[in-house]
Design goal:
This protein is of the alpha+beta class. The chain has five helices and five strands. The chain has one domain (about 5-140).
């Protein structure tokens, strides 16, 4: 029995709130089972993702160099968003999840529209950990 993956796209909501946003490139977060089948896909704008993780920008160099947030900041948006971009596995899902939990209150306090994106990121991380699946991310334009 084939099970269709969960696909959540939040860019269109962001565009309704911020219609004059430019350069709304997409960043994908994917959960795949051990056979490589897509289980869950979350698509955010890079603005949404950066709004969340920029809470770590001032101290991202203190994070583990293998963490997703560290890699995003150190590689820079340009390197994540190139024409050769492909899925990159994130082996530190629990760490990423905990980092998101640590900044959740800040995102909520700012009454930002990124809270829905943050909640979806938490859900996909929870699903990956619960099902012992693999977690991937990449940016596309």
């Amino acid at each position: 029995m084939n099970i269709l993956p969960i696909k959540i796209e939040l860019i269109s909501k962001w565009m309704k709130l911020y219609p004059y946003s430019v350069c709304l490139d997409e960043i994908y977060f994917r959960e795949r089972d051990n056979n490589g089948n897509l289980v869950y896909e979350l698509v955010l704008s890079t603005h949404q993702f950066e709004f969340i993780i920029n809470h770590y920008y001032s101290n991202f160099r203190e994070l583990n160099p293998e963490s997703l947030i560290y890699k995003y900041h150190i590689k820079g948006y340009e390197n994540w968003n190139d024409s050769e971009s492909k899925e990159e596995e994130c082996n530190r899902v629990k760490e990423f999840y905990e980092q998101l939990i640590n900044i959740k209150e800040k995102v909520v306090q700012e009454t930002s529209d990124a809270i829905e994106a943050l909640n979806e990121l938490l859900k996909i991380c929870e699903s990956v950990m619960k099902n012992k699946n693999k977690f991937y991310s990449f940016s596309d334009y």
